[in-house]
Design goal:
The complex is a heteropentamer of chains A (484), B (108), C (510), D (166) and E (650).
Chain A (H helix, E strand, L loop, with lengths): L9 H6 L1 H19 L8 H18 L3 E3 L4 E3 L1 H28 L4 H19 L3 H19 L6 H32 L4 H9 L6 H18 L8 H8 L2 H26 L4 H24 L4 H22 L2 H29 L14 H4 L1 H15 L5 H15 L3 H27 L4 H4 L6 H19 L2 H10 L3
Antiparallel strand pairs in A: 1-2
Chain D lengths: L1 H21 L3 H21 L3 H25 L14 H23 L16 H9 L3 H22 L5
Helix pairs in contact in D: 1-2, 2-3
Chain E lengths: L4 H16 L5 H25 L11 E11 L2 E9 L1 H24 L6 H20 L3 H19 L6 H32 L4 H9 L9 H16 L8 H4 L5 H10 L4 H8 L1 H5 L2 H23 L4 H21 L3 H28 L17 H15 L5 H16 L1 H26 L15 H4 L26 H16 L5 H4 L13 H24 L3 H8 L1 H8 L4 H51 L4 H25 L1
Antiparallel strand pairs in E: 1-2
Helix pairs in contact in E: 1-2, 1-4, 2-3, 2-4, 3-4, 3-10, 3-15, 3-20, 4-5, 5-6, 6-8, 8-11, 8-13, 10-15, 13-14, 13-18, 14-15, 14-17, 14-18, 15-16, 15-17, 15-20, 16-18, 16-20, 17-18, 17-22, 18-22, 23-24
The chains are: A mainly alpha (484), B mainly alpha (108), C mainly alpha (510), D mainly alpha (166), E mainly alpha (650).
Chain lengths: 484, 108, 510, 166, 650
């Protein structure tokens, strides 16, 4: 085959445009940082915002089709998730600035890392090749490790980073091992080929594929913090800087879910009868662990961490459904959850203040009386997490369980719904202290929120409500984008 | 493994077995060692084991992709090493220890 | 955009308006809005004043969510009409009774009150199962805050308990709703109902029973039916007056309404088959509630348990599957709304004067406050079902229907009437008769004009509804006849009927 | 001949691996890891991976391990101290691993379809030329993207390890 | 014919007095209260006259329909009034006696507080009583039935500062509720079996049905109705409320608890005679209940010292007679006795009231005596009443009672004899009261504090107005005759109870209740009369000739005496067997255990368990990286086993 035929065409670059933009922006920010005169703050944050805003249309309008010898494939799902992670990036940047300023750590590297990590996630969601997936995953992860430990003088940050890093690479090794076996079994690392192979008569022994799939599942389940691989999540999310936690709970997670959907609903669909039951169990375990462990938490970041585990469980229910509606539901849910959770964390960021002094739930006592606006926003987010109608969270749950029932997963549905009832308990506790307790010193001297943070909070709230009142906007897209 | 007169060449499965053993040893190291750096090295061991599998498979399949893949794994390992060691440094700076079990303030 | 939509969305508008208005003007604004809503809602009576249409009126049916096809479909019929009016009537009254009672965070209070009205009205008019569930949950949130923020000492426990109980029930209902959708491809109540009628949608006995129970559970908790009632006393005791009023008068009706609207027509056979059990629970509830009320030292607890008893009658009537029983049940919903609402208001008046809910803290109120005690007496008599007052008509019809369904049930249920006299009269004697202590007589001024304004409409309604039941019953009756016909057909016929694809039927029912 | 070589290097690899695990001093662990890597490089050669064998020695045994040793020296990490803490994890680990190995062995021996024995030079696809070709044709994109990876690594290292700005 | 005017007039009176009474002057209140009742009496007379009731007309029922009250399915209940001869008598009695007693009350209550309240309640009572008799269907009857119960509750508890008064009120209402329970069930059965509640429709259906050989639907309905009747008309076993009801003002006792309301049961049984006639079995029960009540009540009456209590038990006893009449099929006789009893018992109570009035609120006969000097008119009128009830020849009581007894003899001689004996006792205790009150020396201390303290009694609602001097006020006054406004009504009633017997009610009622042909033996009357006279004589012997005798007698029959003196301990029995078990059971068992412990405990238990699970899961989150790794390893092994190998088996 002539070399020329391998030269990337303009179409290839067009489909890779968002990643390119973001990478260039990241590099540029690093230069800015290097050239920045001492003490003056560079417009890094602003620039990052601009870059993300520019990347948004690039992601939305990317024509669908394969690129770079089928390394990537831009399809509805890719577009959906790329858009999602970029929006997530935007909100996170907005909610970070004030925080960093407060910590006297506002340096461009932070934004560069965020951008690169988003690049990694974009690569993950577009990749159609295990190699690409692996590299994207690593880009995103390594950036996340660093972000988690960004405040290098803060013991909690270090610990969180270390745990995330060690366990993360530990799990990655499993994923790799799985990939190796998949390669060995099918002779390919291209998902389309793999699927074709598995569907064909020459399919290798199922057990072989099964083991490979299992090992890969371990790697991905770790990333989405599914039980029993969830144990790192609470520590990491609690230890990391609040805005970073916000990012970690949605960005990498969404990307990992995209990969999960691609690999299992895509490549490994032929052996669904093998992995679906495992996902069933995993989903239930995840919901239970997340919800019940959250009941006893007193630190709001940790509580949200557990809740994020529980929500991963709900999305796994959709995966277990193993259907088009299922993947659509998962996509919608991840979108809704992204807005909700970033919003919630943004409020926490605002409230916890320098050194994250006020992260205990009791500190929120009487917030509604000093800062009714912020309290109302947090209320919206919590209601969405509970799954009260007219919020994105509700419709997310609704579609997920609808998909599950479509797939006749009646018991999983019932148990999941009961779980969501349990969840209501610990979210309500926050509402209780916010509205029904008298203000304490933590609330007394609470400064008003900065403009950018406000944008983040109100933006997320708007997104949450929008997804709740007019879900069709996103859902129709998700349905069109859904695999199969 | 079947003992007896040694064959001229060993089947690939032996290589794979070796890789599995090394992988297991890596995991074991992760579980047993208390020094963070050693734990990290155990991960590297696991990655090496994976690489062996890749190379073996690509021999079986008579295709080079496995080599490519293991090449990327090395690159990634390098990157991880850089970041990982940096993280370990910060941890050490803050706690003056490399005992992994002492890094356990975040819990429950 | 029908009048109904206006009635539905005005409170929401009011909620938003209140959020932006300054604190001090919120009281008056809330009152004006609530009254406005009530006045507008009176227009809903138009089609029902001279003839009694059996179908829907004020229908609005527009798509809301494209896939799955969820429609904003609201309509009114003889069943929901009165419940809507009940909600719109009691909201301004609730505003009035909290005029002085609520002294902190006034604005939020009234905002939540209006939001609550929005949810309640929505529940009664939603004709799309999904929409119904949405309103069902929405109504939950403001009540949670009303109890939790402005309640008494153990308010938080009560609020959370209330929320979790309802939540636990409703999630299963959601599952059932989704399941129905998966079977029928629509959320539209009318269409699903039609399919069941035409026999194009048939469940095997077990499935139908499970679906029925999923719905029934949610409603039974809300009613509340023995033994799911324990959230009620707590919620009532801790809630502020307005909260108790809305809770008792309207919110509990969501449950009974749901039973009539959904449980019977959608799952006729399961409903009929489980009727004996449910009737049993209802009867236990009637007697049990009354007996427990008898020994309560706390007024609000007493009234709360009496609600358990009264709503037992409603459930019993519903599951008697007779015209009288059903008419009585629906009528009793309104009666209970009026008389128990009034009771809570009056208890609230007492509390504002004496700051205690313990019956022991009173005694001899009649001497310093004759008007208050007369009104209380009338309300008491109404709630123990004295003829020519509202509850009598309802209870009579319920028992009559029950008797013709199963005389044994009627015997036990009728015992409840005796006990109700016991606990209410005993309460009245202990609180109002006897010699008033000095301190009490000093802190017991008679009714103020504002208080009169709040309570008088209810008292008038008690007499009117008792003596001229026909000004309410016909439209209800027509509706219930329809519902009964829907529950008549037995499964054997339906199985026999040619099963045609759901979509076809859906078109047929358009 | 091939078999003998395999057994020898496999033995070295395993022994070094075990040594890594049992040594309590990081330096000795590091050195044994180097040993493993060397042995593996040899095995790669047997499997016809000339390029990869070289890379193994240069990148891994060379660069990465040097980095490790460097850090160990920097922090002059000594032998592990005995701690009161006894996480149950490690006790659980060993039996689980046996299970794990058992399953893998079963997979490899029983399920994996048998294939021709490994003979040195039987596979020529691993030459630098071959690898280079596919790296710059089919795998162009991943190859380029790894640059971002390296970039992040540098960036991260700077962020975490640089001296205080203020 | 505007029948509706008859009840509406008192209702208007009630509304006017009830709403504005507190601002009205006493004369205005009187005018409204008395006026409304008298007007409705006049309207009754006019209507009956127009219907020809006085000129042998009104053979058929005359009915007016006003509006539909309740319409549900096939069941249609209208607000209809109907008049037939039975109703006619009831109307006359109710409005007539009602007017008289209203007038009397003007005097009696003159110095009481809550004046307007009293008359408002009284008017309301008239309204409901008239609804009761006019109602043309069971439900309307039930409306009146419960309504009068309510008024009796209110009026018994009129002195609501007194615990015993309000207790008595509650007792009355609740015991009546128990009766109504039976009534209601009967109504349901009627509606179920005859598809209507309208008297005419139902009874015409029944008329062509065969009489029940064994207990069947008619018996069930009849007995359930009887339960209602025993409640309202104070028959065994539900009579216990009536004696306590005497806590109310005396005119109330006269009007409600003697003349009218308590006879509602009798009226109701007569009204539903068709049903009873179809169930001989039920009729016998009625008779036996009546007879037992008559006898037992009379025995209790022998030993009471409170003058009103004496008359209360005699009321119970006389009602028993009426039921005997009904039970033996002599419905007209029963109604006849109802009327005459209304005359003389109203008289007795009002007289008693006058006496109490004279003795500054004293009710205990042991503290009276010798009043003939002070209150001659009262004495004479009371004498008439006593003679009438004692069955003195040619007086009203004799006429009606003899009819009943004769019918009883026809039915079963032993009933006759019991009745006669009871008549003797009646005569005895009535005259015991008479003699104790008017003969001998005045035993009352001149400054006797009243059993209740009107000082507060009339401050019960408007403290601002000057305390008029109630009965308790004229401490130290010697007993005095009542004003004309009180004794004129007495006089009228006296005349009625003397001559009332000559109104031939049985003949008048013949279209409804055909009277058995054939003259019964004369000796029956003579024996009855003799028994009465004997009773009188015995009383004279005991309480005038040799006053020491009773104590001696009581001493020698201590057990028996205590038994009847304490009313056979029935109240105590009910308390111990019904009231306390219910209350304590509810508190201890249902509330504290079942509700709080079990049900709520279970609910909270779920929460506790959830929290427990949460705690466990937190412990799993040890914070040690190596443990987390172990989790991952374990999970991966599970995954491999499940997906890789076990997956194959499924």
């Amino acid at each position: 085959m002539p070399i020329a035929s391998f030269l990337p065409t303009s179409a290839d670059y067009a489909r890779f445009l968002p990643e390119l933009l973001l990478t260039l922006a990241g590099v540029f920010i690093m230069f800015l940082e290097a050239l920045r005169p001492e003490g003056k703050r560079s417009g890094a944050g602003l620039f990052a915002i601009v870059a993300l805003v520019m990347a948004l249309p690039a992601a939305l309008l990317a024509s669908s089709g394969p690129a770079f010898q089928g390394m990537l494939v831009v399809d509805g799902m890719a577009t959906f998730f790329r858009t999602l992670v970029i929006v997530v990036g935007l909100l996170v940047v907005f909610s970070s600035t004030d925080y960093l300023r407060g910590e006297h750590q506002e340096s461009g590297e932070y934004y560069a890392l965020i951008l690169f990590s988003i690049v990694g996630q974009c690569v993950m969601v577009t990749a159609n090749e295990l190699v690409m997936i692996f590299i994207g995953l690593e880009i995103s992860s390594i950036a996340s490790y660093v972000l988690a430990g960004y405040l290098r003088d803060d013991a909690r940050n270090n610990e969180s980073a270390l745990k995330y890093f060690l366990l993360g690479s530990f799990a990655t090794a499993f994923l790799l091992y799985g990939i190796a076996w998949m390669y060995g079994a099918t002779g390919s690392t291209n998902l389309s080929d793999i699927r074709r192979m598995l569907a064909s008569a020459a399919a290798p022994p199922e057990a072989l594929i099964g083991v490979a799939a299992a090992l890969m599942f371990v790697g991905l389940a770790f990333k989405i913090s599914a039980a029993p691989f969830q144990s790192w999540a609470p520590d990491v999310y609690q230890g990391a800087p609040a805005p970073v936690s916000a990012f970690l709970t949605v960005g990498p997670k969404a990307a990992a879910f995209a990969v999960l959907l691609r690999i299992f609903l895509g490549g490994l669909e032929p052996i669904a009868s093998r992995w679906a039951p495992a996902v069933w169990v995993c989903a239930l375990a995840t919901m239970v662990v997340g919800n019940f462990a959250a009941i006893m938490q007193s630190n709001i970041k940790r509580l949200l961490a557990y809740s994020s585990i529980a929500h991963a469980g709900y999305v796994l229910v959709a995966v277990a459904a193993n259907s088009g509606t299922g993947s659509a539901a998962a996509m919608f849910y991840l979108a809704a959850y992204a807005f909700t959770n970033i919003g919630a964390f943004a409020v926490v960021t605002y409230f916890s203040r320098r050194g994250e002094r006020y992260v205990s739930i009791d500190d929120f006592a009487g917030l509604a009386q000093r800062q009714p606006g912020m309290a109302a926003m947090l209320t919206i987010f919590l209601l969405s997490l509970i799954g009260v109608p007219l919020t994105g969270g509700f419709f997310g749950k609704f579609y997920i369980f609808k998909a599950a029932l479509d797939a006749r997963l009646i018991w999983l549905t019932v148990l999941g719904l009961l779980n969501s009832a349990v969840a209501a308990y610990y979210y309500l506790r926050i509402l209780v202290v916010m509205y029904m307790r008298e203000p304490g010193e933590s609330v007394e001297k609470l400064p008003p929120a900065g403009a950018l943070l406000r944008i983040a909070v109100y933006g997320s709230a708007a997104g949450t409500l929008l997804l709740g009142i007019f879900p069709s906007l996103v859902l129709d897209f998700a349905n069109r984008a859904a695999l199969r | 493994m079947p003992l007896g007169p040694l064959p001229a060449a060993v089947p690939p499965s032996w290589y794979l077995t070796l890789s599995a053993i090394l992988f297991a040893l890596g995991v074991l190291g992760f579980l047993l060692r208390r020094n963070i750096i050693t734990v990290f090295m155990s991960i590297e061991l696991m990655l090496n084991a994976v690489n062996l599998s890749f190379v073996t498979f690509s021999y079986v399949l008579k295709r080079a992709d496995g080599h490519i893949f293991s090449f990327f794994v090395m690159v990634v390992a390098a990157a991880e090493a850089a970041v990982g060691l940096a993280i370990i440094l910060t941890v050490f700076k803050n706690r003056q220890t490399l005992e992994i079990d002492e890094v356990s303030t975040l819990k429950n | 955009m029908t009048l109904l939509d206006i009635v539905l969305f005005l409170p929401l508008l009011g909620f938003l308006i209140l959020l932006v208005l300054p604190k001090q003007s919120s009281r008056m604004a809330a009152l004006i809005i609530a009254l406005g809503v009530f006045v507008v809602s009176l227009g809903l009576l138009m089609p029902y004043s001279f003839q009694y249409p059996s179908g829907h009126t004020f229908t609005t049916d527009v798509p809301w969510i494209s896939y799955p096809p969820i429609r904003y479909h609201v309509a009114l019929d003889g069943l929901s009409l009165w419940l809507v009016l009940l909600s719109t009537l009691l909201t301004p009254i609730a505003v009035l009774v909290s005029w002085n009672y609520i002294d902190h965070r006034v604005k939020e209070f009234y905002a939540f009150l209006l939001l609550l009205e929005f949810g309640l009205v929505g529940v009664f008019v939603a004709m799309d199962l999904f929409l119904f569930y949405v309103f069902w949950e929405i109504s939950l949130v403001p009540m949670y805050f009303l109890v939790g923020i402005w309640g008494h000492e153990r308010r938080i426990y009560a609020a959370v308990k209330f929320f979790l109980y309802t939540m636990a029930g409703s999630v299963l209902m959601l599952a059932a709703i989704i399941f129905l959708y998966n079977r029928t491809g629509t959320f539209d109540y009318g269409q699903i109902q039609g399919m069941i009628q035409t026999g194009s949608l048939v469940f095997d006995a077990r499935t139908e029973l499970l679906l029925f129970l999923a719905f029934f559970g949610a409603f039974a908790i809300k009613v509340p039916l023995f033994p799911l009632h324990t959230w009620l006393p707590d919620a009532h005791v801790e809630a502020p007056t307005a909260g108790s009023v809305m809770l008792a008068s309207v919110m509990l009706k969501m449950g009974t309404y749901g039973l009539v609207r959904f449980c019977l027509p959608l799952f006729p056979d399961a409903a009929r088959r489980s009727a004996p059990w449910i009737a049993g629970l209802a009867i236990i509830g009637i007697i049990y509630g009354a007996l427990v009320a008898l020994v309560q030292p706390n007024m609000k607890k007493l009234v709360a348990y009496s609600s358990v008893s009264h709503l037992g009658f409603v459930v019993l009537g519903i599951f008697s599957f007779t015209q009288q029983g059903l008419d009585g049940a629906v009528y009793q919903m309104l009666n209970h709304g009026i008389s128990t609402g009034a009771l809570f208001i009056l208890v609230g008046y007492l509390y504002e004067r004496r700051h205690s809910l313990e019956i022991a803290a009173y005694g001899g109120v009649a001497t310093p406050a004759p008007n208050l005690s007369i009104i209380f007496l009338i309300t008491t008599l109404a709630s123990i079902g004295l003829p020519a007052l509202n509850n009598f008509v309802g209870e009579y019809l319920v028992l009559q229907g029950t008797a013709s369904a199963n005389f044994g049930w009627a015997i036990f249920a009728a015992l409840g009437v005796i006990f109700s006299a016991c606990y209410m009269l005993w309460l009245y004697q202990r609180a109002f008769y006897g010699r008033a202590s000095e301190s009490l007589s000093h802190h017991m001024p008679d009714l103020t004009s504002r208080e009169w304004a709040a309570i008088l409409p209810l008292v008038i309604l008690m007499v009117w509804m008792g003596s001229f039941a026909q000004s309410f019953l016909p439209s209800i009756s027509v509706q219930n006849t329809a519902i009964l016909n829907q529950t008549k057909r037995l499964r054997v016929e339906r199985v026999a009927a040619p099963a045609q694809p759901a979509a076809e039927v859906a078109r047929a029912n358009r | 001949m091939d078999a003998l070589l395999f057994l020898v290097f496999a033995a070295i690899a395993v022994i070094c691996g075990i040594n890594l695990v049992v040594q309590t001093h990081p330096i000795s662990s590091a050195l044994s890891l180097v040993g493993v890597m060397g042995a593996l490089a040899a095995l790669y050669l047997l499997l016809g991976g000339e390029f990869i064998a070289a890379a193994q020695l240069v990148v891994y045994a060379g660069a990465i391990m040097v980095l490790f040793v460097f850090v160990i020296m920097l922090l002059n990490a000594g032998t592990e101290r005995k701690l009161a803490i006894r996480p149950w994890g490690k006790y659980l680990g060993a039996p689980l691993l046996l299970l794990f190995l058992g399953m893998m062995a079963y997979l490899i021996q029983r399920i994996l379809p048998p294939s021709s024995p490994v003979v040195f030079g039987a596979f020529q696809g691993g030459t630098p030329a071959e690898i280079g070709r596919s790296l710059f044709t089919v795998y162009l994109l991943p190859f380029e993207v790894t640059s971002v990876l390296i970039l992040i690594a540098i960036l991260g290292a700077i962020v975490l390890a640089r001296k205080e700005v203020d | 014919m505007q029948l509706w005017l008859i009840p509406i007039l008192p209702l208007l009176g009630f509304l006017l007095n009830g709403l504005f009474g507190r601002r009205l002057a006493k004369p205005v209140i009187n005018a409204i209260a008395v006026g409304s009742v008298v007007l409705s009496f006049l309207w009754v007379v006019k209507t009956l006259n127009a219907l020809g009731a006085f000129s042998g007309g009104l053979e058929q029922t005359y009915k007016e329909h006003y509006y539909t009250w309740i319409q549900s399915g096939s069941l249609n209940i209208g607000v209809d009034f109907a008049i037939d001869r039975l109703t006619a008598i009831m109307l006359m009695v109710v409005t007539g006696i009602g007017s008289i007693i209203h007038i009397y009350s003007v005097g009696y209550m003159a110095h009481e507080g809550g004046y307007y309240r009293f008359f408002a309640y009284l008017n309301l009572f008239m309204f409901f009583m008239l609804i009761l008799v006019l109602g043309a269907n069971f439900l309307l009857l039930f409306v009146g039935w419960e309504g009068v119960g309510l008024c009796s509750y209110l009026l018994i508890g009129f002195y609501f500062l007194e615990k015993f008064a309000t207790d008595a009120g509650n007792k009355a209402f609740i015991v009546n509720r128990i009766g109504d329970f039976g009534f209601a069930l009967a109504v349901f059965l009627v509606a179920i079996n005859f598809g209507s509640l309208d008297f005419q429709t139902v009874f015409t259906q029944i008329r062509n049905m065969p009489v029940e050989a064994s207990a069947g639907i008619f018996t069930t309905i009849a007995l359930l109705l009887l339960v209602g009747a025993t409640g309202k008309s104070a028959q065994i076993p539900l009579y216990v409320w009536l004696p306590d009801a005497m806590a109310g003002p005396t005119p109330v006792s006269a009007l409600i608890h003697a003349a009218t309301m308590v006879t509602a049961g009798v009226y109701m049984v007569a009204r539903t005679s068709q049903i009873y006639l179809h169930s001989p079995w039920a009729l016998d029960i009625v008779a036996i209940v009546g007879l037992t009540t008559a006898f037992v009540a009379a025995t209790i009456g022998l030993a009471q010292n409170d003058i009103k209590k004496v008359f209360a038990y005699s009321t119970v006893s006389q009602l028993g007679y009426m039921f005997v009449g009904l039970g033996v099929g002599a419905f007209s006789a029963g109604i006849f006795h109802l009327m005459t009893h209304a005359f003389f018992k109203a008289l007795l109570f009002l007289g008693a009231g006058s006496v109490i009035h004279a003795c500054s609120g004293e009710q205990d006969m042991r503290n009276m005596g010798g009043l003939r000097k002070f209150t001659p008119i009262t004495m004479i009128t009371l004498l008439c009443g006593s003679l009438a009830i004692a069955g003195f020849p040619f007086l009203s009581g004799a006429a009606s009672k003899d009819l009943i007894l004769e019918a009883a003899y026809e039915h079963a001689p032993w009933m006759y004899w019991v009745g006669v004996f009871t008549a003797g006792m009646t005569a005895f205790y009535v005259f015991r009261a008479f003699f104790l009150t008017f003969f001998g020396e005045y035993r009352g201390s001149t400054a006797k504090p009243a059993h209740y303290d009107p000082d507060t009694a009339h401050r019960d609602d408007h403290p601002q107005d000057d305390p008029g001097h109630g009965h308790g006020h004229d401490h130290g006054h010697a007993p005095h005759e009542s004003p004309a406004v009180m004794w004129i009504p007495l006089a009228i009633l006296a005349l009625l109870s003397l001559g009332g017997g000559f109104i031939n009610v049985p003949h008048f009622l013949e279209p409804l209740f055909p009277v058995a042909e054939g003259e019964s033996a004369r000796w029956l009357e003579y024996t009855a009369t003799a028994a009465g006279l004997a009773g009188i004589a015995l009383a004279y012997l005991f309480y005038v000739v040799s006053p020491g005798l009773p104590e001696a007698l009581a001493g020698s029959f201590k057990g028996l005496y205590n038994l009847i003196y304490n009313k056979y301990f029935v109240d105590e029995f009910y308390d111990a067997t019904v009231v306390e078990p219910v209350v304590d059971g509810s508190r201890q068992l249902l509330w504290r255990v079942a509700d709080v412990e079990l049900i709520d405990g279970a609910a909270n238990g779920i929460g506790t368990t959830a929290r427990g699970v949460g705690r466990l899961l937190r412990l799993a989150q040890s914070g040690y990286i190596r443990n987390y790794a172990a989790w991952v390893l374990a999970g991966s092994i599970l995954a491999i086993a499940y997906i890789g190998f076990l997956g194959a088996s499924r």
